[in-house]
Design a protein that fits this description.
Two copies of one chain form a homodimer.
Chain A lengths: L1 E8 L3 H19 L3 E5 L4 H7 L5 H7 L4 E6 L9 H13 L4 E7 L17 E7 L3 E10 L8 H11 L10 E9 H16 L4 E6 L5 H16 L5 E6 H10 L6 E4 L1 H14 L7 E5 L5 E5 L16 H13 L3 H16 L13 H13 L1
Parallel strand pairs in A: 1-2, 1-3, 3-12, 5-10, 8-9, 8-10
Antiparallel strand pairs in A: 4-5, 4-11, 6-7, 11-12
Helix pairs in contact in A: 1-10, 1-11, 1-12, 6-7, 8-9, 10-11, 11-12
The complex binds 3-isopropylmalic acid (IPM) (2 copies).
Cofactor (chains A, B): Mg(2+); Mn(2+)
Enzyme class (chains A, B): oxidoreductase
EC number (chains A, B): 1.1.1.85
Chain lengths: 370, 370
């Protein structure tokens, strides 16, 4: 028996999460476990009514669960950033889910948009750092009228950047990214451990030739960590080049470890080469705490309630959740049932089919029950 | 008669620049102008011998030229960042080349790696801001042993990020990005002006939902600038989604305006969808100063001197240079001659051909001479 917190969220979130829960329950029947779901009403609707994003009490309560199954957040009535920072990033940070695990794998039966690339070419995992970098939310604005604010930071870049804030009429904004040695170390150790169970290759992504302060530290730690894993082949890459190689040579990759922001960018590209956002799952993992599993796509408000959303990303995220709980066989079973469903042609219109959201969930669940 | 500064640089830089100069000279014969080249010996070789990257005197001298024709820099014997920051970025910043103009266009005869996309689908221009953002080179490291350093910045993020630098044994690094209102305004105005001469569409790229300080300002300025260009249709996008659309729907784009770092990333992806780095040119433009034109690829040291490098990106950058100088007809003529050369099958091995670097330059020049 596992206790799992469920957060449907906004837009298509609740409907795709329903399919995910349906499939995980079916997997439980088949592989002999039970999931006890607790639903939490967190999202745009409540925020718009009450101004509440997520409370300290809720965070405390959820921290008692091993896992969260998450739909999606985002609503056209709320300014960009509010829900993302106030709910999604808030939970990633609060539960210290320092690994964002994103498999990039072309399932059998799915056509990649890349010429000549098949399932044998596209099968790697991105391990994205999930609690540091430019996601720490530190920054501000300087205006002439606010001269006293943060004097030292201002002096710092007036000197280096040659901007005279005192006399410039323009506004200037800054944003700070932070990496810590321990923050780099733990996510890299996770990536190397994973590689040791796969093809024993780790590629690191950074932009140390320009953002040399944060990514200089990143490279320093990478070389320490690789020293502890002599059986793993490594490569240091720049983020700009990585976007090219994802398109040209995805078969080069096994495990990719990346700082937070570049991870955000390259995993969306990864989702596309594996057939689209409707197919891309993610896990926000704290190996010794509360972890959260979600499709990497957003809430697609315009499709809400139409029953056309593709639930595969969410169902696959459910497989990652089962794997995290130690139900490895069930996790594999779910992914096989997804592939079976695609083979049977029960797919939504983003994949060229005519199935509804619930048809897909029903079919995956039926295949699991056998 | 135009005076142009030529910097071959490192690796394959000098050989591809030779082809570019050859073609521009041929264009001069055909369209009735002369280019007076002045070569500058700037690059890794000199740096390794003398420790000099680029001197203030050189910068001063080059600032007297309307344009620089640049090969590439980068050498395996020099630590990443030194040459990039000390030469390439130094010149972009010193000459205030605030527009990095990168056409993403699939030439006729080139196969895109994207299924079902042809020249009619891939034809847009990225206008990358080139002097601000995370490229300002501000950052540092905190160690326990350096407690006095930058007290206020440290306090700033100890509070917000919850890091106790005093007692943490780990090292922490930070990196600061800066955007100014005027910096955003001028590059956006350039993008809208360009769109008015094209399909009248501008997409802005940012990550305002997370890096809301710098990209909040970016969006604020964007909405002011779009107000001054009522005939142009606009779209605000997030950088992660943009990487997907470049792959799935490149035909959506006309002009893309982006902050510096995201521009770096998406233009490498753009280079790939237009057939590879061997084909992607860039211009670093100060509309009223000294502008610099270069292939967007690096110095590929392992191919140096082999005569196998593809000079098309450099030759195309030469076309951008001519366009900048006001020789619009000649610029178009060069691009047509490149397409003619591809049609004639005179291409290097990255494009599946057997031609040498100089064969390609000779053929483009011959087509131009007619
Ligand atoms: C919604 C947004 C804050 C989020 C991110 O940037 O991490 C999303 O893009 C993702 O990748 O999960
Ligand atoms: C070499 C590097 C500093 C440069 C950049 O990041 O701008 C390059 O990638 C480019 O895009 O011109």
């Amino acid at each position: 028996m596992y206790r799992v917190a469920a957060i449907g969220g906004d837009g298509i979130g609740p409907e795709i999460l329903d399919e995910g829960k349906k499939v995980l329950d079916a997997a439980g029947e088949r592989y002999g476990f039970d999931i006890d779901w607790t639903d939490f009403d967190i999202g745009a609707e409540r925020y718009l009514e009450t101004g509440v994003l997520v409370t300290e009490e809720e965070l405390k309560e959820i921290s008692g669960y091993p896992a969260i199954y998450f739909g999606s957040i985002g609503d056209e009535r709320v300014k960009p950033g509010i829900l993302e920072k106030g709910i999604l990033l808030k939970m990633r940070f609060s539960f210290d889910e320092y690994v964002n695990l994103r498999p990039i794998r072309l399932l059998h039966g799915i056509q990649s948009p890349l010429v000549g690339k098949g399932p044998e070419d596209i099968d790697f995992v991105v391990v994205r750092e999930n609690t540091e970098d430019f996601y720490v939310g530190i920054g501000s604005r300087f205006r002439q009228s606010e001269k006293k604010e943060l004097e030292v930071v201002r002096d710092l870049y007036s000197v280096k950047f040659g901007l005279d804030v005192e006399s410039d009429a323009e506004e200037i904004a800054y944003q700070i990214g932070v990496l810590s040695r321990e923050g780099c170390r733990r996510v890299m150790e996770y990536a190397f451990d994973l590689a040791e169970r796969r093809q024993r290759r780790v590629a690191s992504v950074d932009k140390a030739n320009v953002l040399s302060d944060v990514y200089g530290l990143w490279r320093e730690v990478f070389s320490e960590v690789e020293g502890r894993h002599p059986g793993v082949a490594t490569e240091l890459t720049f983020v700009d080049a990585v976007t090219m190689w994802f398109v040209k040579n995805p078969e080069w990759f096994d495990v990719v470890v990346t700082p937070n922001m570049f991870g955000d960018i390259v995993t969306d590209l990864g989702a596309m080469i594996q057939g689209g956002l409707g197919l891309a799952p993610g896990g926000n993992i704290n190996p010794t705490g509360t972890s959260m599993f979600e499709p990497i796509h957003g809430s697609a408000p315009k499709y809400r309630g139409l029953g056309v959303a593709n639930p595969i990303a969410t169902i696959w995220a459910g497989a990652l959740l089962l794997d995290y709980l130690g139900e490895h066989e069930a996790a594999e079973g779910v992914v096989e049932a997804i592939e079976g469903t695609i083979r049977d042609g029960v797919v939504t219109r983003d994949l060229g089919g005519a199935a509804k959201t619930a048809d897909v969930g029903d079919h995956v669940a039926a295949l699991l029950r056998g």
